[in-house]
Fold:
Amino acid sequence: MLEDEFVDVFGKAMRGTRVSVEQLAKATGLPASQIAAWAKGSAVPSEDQARALAGPLHLDPGKFADAAAVRWHPAPIDLPDVRHHPQQPHPSNGYVFFLEGNRRAALVDPAGIPQNLLRILRDGAYNLQYILITHKHPDHCDATGDIASNFPQAQIVMHKADVFAIGDLASRATLIRDGEELPFGDEARIRLLHTPGHTDGSSSFVFRSTVFTGDTLFAGSVGGAFGDVSTYADILNSVRSRLFTLPDDTVMMPGHGPPSKIGWEKAHNPFF
Ligand SMILES: [Fe+2]
Structure:
């Protein structure tokens, strides 16, 4: 299952473009009552209806029709050097990635029950070098204190616009500058991308040919635009200018839903 169903994509696009049901009805000639039912998720438009709606919402018509018909799902992806961890009780995704051989690890988004994360890290006897935080929402960072106190040598990395969310730990965080690289082990590097729009400090992390996108980009969708100063236009621009400029075979590991690839998102994500 994709993180966002048709109704979610439709709602995000309506809110983002500030187009009302009445305006959509006027622009497409479709009945307002029917559009309202699609916006509530109690019905789904046909191929032609979805294509008609896409124009005023600035969505791709063919990809939006595919979303309505549930025609696309990314093929499963399993990477040897990235481990997914669930973040119960949250529905979000966290990840640990590591350098084979020397047990050096980096954690993306410490959230949920801390014992679950600590078990993963201790099982591998990992030397945790970085705690990378994609953004300020609790389902992505509410276990930061527990992980940081168990791994005091680990460097916390977060954007300054969101860093208040980790309280006193903010003073020891490395603040993200867009495009900067951090050394990881002897040869690897982690590239930091500022991808605002979901939140003002939303960030993505590139390790080898994998990008961790937090709630900026999902398979077949984008995160909601909840920034204080950044907007829906910013989230789309972040994806276009920071994520879609990565090679097409880059694996995308999102904060919610299944992994995908940058090339697959270009081909199937209705927002682009
Ligand atoms: Fe979020």
Remarks:
- The two ends are 20 Å apart (CA to CA).
- Residues 6-17 form the longest helix (12 residues).
- The first strand starts at residue 82 and ends at 86.
- Residues 135, 137, 140, 198, 215, 223 surround fe (ii) ion (CB under 6 Å).
